[in-house]
Amino acid sequence: MVEILCPHCDEEIELDDDAQGEFSCPYCDGEFEWGMDEVTAPEASEFGEFEDMAAFSRNDVLHEYSDIPALRITAGVIFSIWMGIHAIGSIFIIFAGMVVDSVESVVESDTTFGAIVILIGIAMLVLYSMGIFFGIKMAMGRLHGLIGSTIVAGLGLVLLIINWLTDESDECLSYDSNQSDWGMIESCSEWGPAPFPIVSLILWLMVVGGLCTMIFIPKVKAIFY
User: Fold this and answer.
1) Would you tell me which of 17, 22, 131, 198 could form a disulfide with 83, CB atoms 3.0–4.6 Å apart?
2) H or E stretch including 172?
3) What is the pLDDT of residues 1-16, one digit of tens each?
């Protein structure tokens, strides 16, 4: 037996040696707990295991696969540069839309082609700026950077195809050279619709395919966290 003092009335109470749980004082009917610390100790250790799992680091992920920092850094830098080139092109599109909009204002035209071009340029600039951001994150080894870069690249590929399908402008397909008093002058001999941008399509497919490969190959995905 063990003797304890009631925490409410300070009267002595006898309990069994292995007693634990909630008890009621026979003198004041006050309730109290005894021996509960021994029960909560194992529970605390279980929570400690969860804390250890929360501390799971990318080094634990790489126990089976080796880290390849050169791969993610190279891919991230190249993708950021690729997005930067398109972002600069978007800025030129915005300026072109501003010029067209000012011309429309001068001639008092009812068309809003310039404003539409400006909005398209701004949307493209936002998209490619996000691509630069995700490319930097990918170079830092962040998984969300790799996923975000893949999404932006996919949207860029879709924009390329939509731009080609909706482009109704004609361009010169062949030139003729004519002799004049000022020398040889080249003039367009045949006009037609713009050809399919096969080179740009191949480049975009290579970017999207490379990023998807990095996502779905476990050995490569393991270097991101």
Assistant:
1) 131
2) strand 170-180
3) 777 888 778 788 887 7
